[in-house]
Every structure is written in structure tokens, then in C-alpha cells.
């Protein structure tokens, strides 16, 4: 089975993990940032050129980008006494991305209840527990589980990020994989507090809160994978490191343009394993549709914000709602 890397930041597959990683592994990201600063003060002749290229590209991509703005896609379904908005998010963004337009503000301000994938307070407190669940046992190291070729590629990827080879040795491959999908973004200037959920949370005083999943449920998606599949996932994550920032930037453009089809194509182009696609997206979307149908039985206006990957492509929340007879319309 091939497991292709899906960045939690962009696809929305694991909100809790994206935020918890950004918080729990802040020292590792800081180390990478410090290393980049040290390299910038060295003479170029003293630097390894392969490391210089990757680190400079990762740092410059966001720093050189001009402030952007757009109109991300928003959907609505309703019955006689309930309106539910569906908004696809990116969990971590650089500064100066202006996406909260009048259309979104109207829908958000009219909503009595705000719903995320998980409870945000729980996510922020999840770092230590998540690290514990992601640790290897019996003195193993993640590098000892790799082939010689994959270990060399892994160590080179960490070196390019300015992270010591042993920094993540004690963690299971799934944990290291998710780390590798976040570290290039953190190093390039993406910030958890600029992510859509954190911005909406800051505007949500007085609103009821709810969640579609728990942090443990999201961790289980990866922690229960067999070790051989975790190692394949890690190898794919290693290969994705050099292009991670550029890939997320492309997804961000589609998101800001409200192009759900274009976004789905970018997110799913490497997701060639139906079993994993269903595990991470389709099946979870079906559970969320159950939640939405139950919520429609009660009056009120609800704003649901989940990762953009769940509202695009095959098996999306909207398509499953429509299959069950609901009408979902785009808010223009």
C-alpha cells in the first residue's frame, strides 16, 4: 500500500495534530530557525550547497510573498428553522492573508454556534499527551527501523531543515511524518495563530461551541497504522519536504480563489490509495454528515469550519449530504 503525504495544514485532515505539533515541537522549529540564521551569517563557501538551496527556498517563499486576499468557498444548507454554513479552512497560514470578507462576516456573525473538527482548547492542551502516544518503546529509534537508503534521505531532509538527525529518534514514524509536514511551514513563516480556526475562535465570544471529533480520534487515525505502513508514510513525507512550502502556497491560491475543484485536484493528486483516502476523508465526512443531520433537528444558525480537504473532491461533506437528499448551495 502506498500512503501519500497530506499536509495537515492545508488538507485539513488532522487539525488537532497540526496545532498540537506546532505547539509541542516549537523548540524543534526554533532550532531550525536558529540554524537558518547561523547559516545566513556564514560565508557561502563554508555551506553545503544542497542544504543552502532547500533552506533558502523554504524561508524565502513566504517572506517574499505579498499580502494576499480572496474569497474562500462557503456553502449553506437549511430547513425551516435551521441554517448550517460549511467553510473549508487552512489550519496554519502566514501573516497578511486577508480572507475574512463581508460575505463570511455576515454568515459568521449570524451564527449562534461555532463548530470545529475538534475542541480547540483540547487541541492546545494535547501536545504532551500526543508526544507520549507517539513515542517508540523498548529503546527503539525511528532511524533504526528504516532501510539504509531511507535513513540517509531522512537525515539529509532534517539537515536541510537545520534539525539534528537524532532530534526525533524517540518517536514513531507517523509522528515524525507529521512533524516533517509542519517544520518547513513553521520555518518559512507560517504561524498557527494565523490559521483560520484560531482567527474564528478569536471572534467567537458569546457563541456556543461544538466539535465533530476528539483529539484522541484524530491521533488514532495514525497511531493504529501498522509499522510498515507508517514507514512508507514517513518516506513519502521525507520526499515531500523540499517542495512542501510551494505546494501549500499553490493550495492557498486555489483556496483564496474559492476554486474547490482546483483545490481538490491539488490535494488529491498523490492520494492514489482508496483505502487511505476513505480512512482519512470519506469515512470521517460520513460521520460528520450524521452530525449535521442530527443538528438540523434543532433550530438555530451554525457555522462549521473544517479543513478544506473535507469540502472538496470525491466523498466530500457536501456530496454526501446531497446523496442523502439535502440541498447544499454555494454562498456568493
Automatic annotation (TrEMBL):
The organism's place on the tree of life at top rank: Bacteria
CDD domains tied to this protein: Tiki (cd14789)
Keywords, ordered alphabetically: Signal
Signal sequence, renumbered to the chain: 1-32
InterPro entries: TraB/PrgY/GumN_fam, YbaP-like
UniProt-recorded name of the protein: TraB/GumN family protein
Organism: Aurantiacibacter spongiae
Amino acid at each position: 500500500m502506498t500512503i501519500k503525504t497530506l499536509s495537515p495544514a492545508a488538507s485539513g485532515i488532522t487539525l488537532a495534530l497540526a496545532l498540537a505539533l506546532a505547539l509541542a515541537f516549537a523548540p524543534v522549529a526554533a532550532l531550525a530557525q536558529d540554524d537558518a540564521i547561523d547559516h545566513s551569517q556564514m560565508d557561502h563557501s563554508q555551506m553545503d550547497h544542497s542544504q543552502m538551496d532547500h533552506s533558502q527556498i523554504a524561508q524565502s517563499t513566504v517572506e517574499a510573498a505579498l499580502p494576499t486576499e480572496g474569497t474562500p468557498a462557503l456553502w449553506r444548507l437549511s430547513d425551516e428553522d435551521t441554517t448550517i454554513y460549511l467553510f473549508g479552512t487552512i489550519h496554519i497560514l502566514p501573516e497578511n492573508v486577508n480572507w475574512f470578507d463581508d460575505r463570511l462576516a455576515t454568515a459568521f456573525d449570524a451564527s449562534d454556534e461555532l463548530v470545529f473538527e475538534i475542541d480547540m482548547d483540547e487541541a492546545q492542551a494535547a501536545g504532551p499527551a500526543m508526544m507520549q502516544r507517539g513515542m517508540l518503546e523498548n529503546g527503539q529509534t525511528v532511524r533504526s527501523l528504516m532501510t539504509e537508503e531511507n535513513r540517509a534521505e531522512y537525515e539529509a531532509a532534517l539537515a536541510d531543515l537545520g534539525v539534528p538527525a537524532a532530534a526525533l529518534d524517540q518517536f514513531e514514524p507517523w509522528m515524525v511524518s507529521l512533524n516533517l509536514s509542519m517544520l518547513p511551514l513553521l520555518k518559512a513563516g507560517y504561524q498557527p495563530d494565523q490559521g483560520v480556526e484560531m482567527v474564528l475562535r478569536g471572534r467567537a465570544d458569546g457563541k456556543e461551541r461544538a466539535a465533530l471529533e476528539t483529539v484522541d480520534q484524530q491521533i488514532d487515525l495514525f497511531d493504529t497504522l501498522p509499522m510498515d505502513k507508517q514507514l512508507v508514510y514517513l518516506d513519502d513525507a521525507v520526499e515531500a519536504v523540499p517542495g512542501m512550502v510551494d505546494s501549500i502556497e499553490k493550495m492557498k491560491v486555489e483556496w483564496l480563489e474559492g476554486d474547490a475543484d482546483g483545490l481538490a485536484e491539488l490535494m488529491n493528486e498523490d492520494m492514489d490509495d482508496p483505502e487511505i483516502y476513505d480512512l482519512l476523508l470519506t469515512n470521517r465526512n460520513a460521520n460528520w454528515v450524521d452530525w449535521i443531520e442530527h443538528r438540523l433537528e434543532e433550530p438555530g444558525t451554525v457555522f462549521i469550519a473544517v479543513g478544506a480537504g473535507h469540502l472538496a473532491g470525491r466523498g466530500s461533506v457536501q456530496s454526501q449530504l446531497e446523496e442523502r437528499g439535502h440541498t447544499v448551495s454555494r454562498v456568493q
